[in-house]
Amino acid sequence: MPIKRHPGGNSPLPSEITPRALFESRRAFIRQIATASVAGGALLEMAGREAFAQTGARPKLAARLNPAYSAMDKPSAYKDATTYNNFYEFGTDKSDPAKHAGTLKPEPWLVSVEGEVKKPMTLDLDALCKLAPLEERLYRLRCVEGWSMVIPWIGYSFAELMRKVEPNGNAKYVEFVSLADKRQMPGLGSRVLDWPYVEGLRLDEANHPLTLLTLGMYGETLPNQNGAPVRIVVPWKYGFKSAKSIVKIRFVREQPRTAWNLAAPAEYGFYSNVNPNVDHPRWSQASERRIGEDGFLTRKRKTLMFNGYNDVASLYAGMDLKKFF
Ligand SMILES: Nc1nc2c(c(=O)[nH]1)N[C@H]1C(S)=C(S)[C@@H](COP(=O)(O)O)O[C@H]1N2
Ligand SMILES: [Mo]
């Protein structure tokens, strides 16, 4: 993030840009095998069994694969997804969360849902897990720093929770607030951000079915370093919009003051949609490095508009995405 220099961009190799026809046929194929009622997870097994290596240490979380919302990319290795993290409450190095997040106590946990809703409520983990059927979704995650991963998350659309609490007519945005407890989070001693970590979405973005209330990954409950026990994942936006270890969800009238936007407004806009045409002031966003692929420092992949989630384009019809970056 802003304190780190980024090692520059590279153009993608032509061979790595999937032609649209191939993309569509692969997607159709995946849909077929999934709807042929092969147990959820078959797709992921085919896509890369090794990605799940070393799971099994955490409680299992049963979920049905949702192929309609799953990328066909090969999942990232569990090892990479759990040791290369951004979670500044535990330090600013990629390796810090895995080393230091052991002090986080994800149970018991309460999430308070409040503000402009007809039915404010406080949900414990059990209530959160039972609120809607759990789905497995393979999403691309694009960090604003220029790297990406592909992670099999488990959760359900945040829209399910919205239906339950019933936002009233004043609700225009949703604010997600992460835990900020010095006893559990050594990184709070640093002033790199104003704590708590706050993120936000416009109401229609929050209500989009891709926005995932996330309780697990790789068939298990979330590891602490990935935002246990509950986080948001918004796959068409840069990773920092996906707040971890959430304790409060507020429906509000005004655009929330979000942590990264407050820290560096010229670098991190409120919308932060993945956009290869809008560079970060200090580096290009046109390409990315997929963690685990060849070329440790080279960006070999072309970054896709909305991270490839074109369904969301209609949310921004008529908006200048260079201005509202
Ligand atoms: N509370 C909190 N949430 C956070 C962050 C953070 O520092 N604190 N980092 C964000 C960033 S920059 C990214 S890229 C993703 C990384 O999620 P992952 O470690 O599960 O891949 O989490 C996001 N959510
Ligand atoms: Mo990030």
Question: How would you portray this structure in words?
Answer:
- With 325 residues, the protein is of the alpha+beta class.
- Helices cover 18% and strands 20% of the residues.
- It contains 8 helices and 13 strands.
- Strands 1, 4, 5, 8, 9, 10, 12 and 13 form an 8-stranded mixed β-sheet that branches.
- A hairpin with a 5-residue loop joins β2 and β3.
- The protein is globular.
- The two termini are 16 Å apart.
- The site of the ligand Nc1nc2c(c(=O)[nH]1)N[C@H]1C(S)=C(S)[C@@H](COP(=O)(O)O)O[C@H]1N2 has 17 residues, from loops.
Brief overview:
This protein has about 325 residues and is of the alpha+beta class. Helices cover about 20% and strands about 20% of the residues. The strands form 2 sheets. Strands 1, 4, 5, 8, 9, 10, 12 and 13 form an 8-stranded mixed β-sheet that branches. The chain has a 5-stranded mixed β-sheet with strand order 3-2-11-6-7.
Distance between the termini: 16 Å
User: How many strand elements?
Assistant: 13
Could you give a short account of the major beta sheet? 8 strands, mixed
**What amount of the residues lies in strands?**
15-25%
Mean pLDDT: 89
**What string, H for helix and E for strand, traces the elements in order?**
HHEHHEEHEEHEEHEEEEHEE
DSSP helix count?
Answer: 8
Q: Residue share in helices? A: 10-25%
The backbone outline, from C-alpha atoms, is: globular
Q: What class would the helix/strand composition place it in?
A: alpha+beta
Give a list of the ligands. ligand MTE, molybdenum atom
Radius of gyration: 19 Å
Which regions contain 5 or more consecutive residues with pLDDT less than 50? Answer: 2-23, 35-39
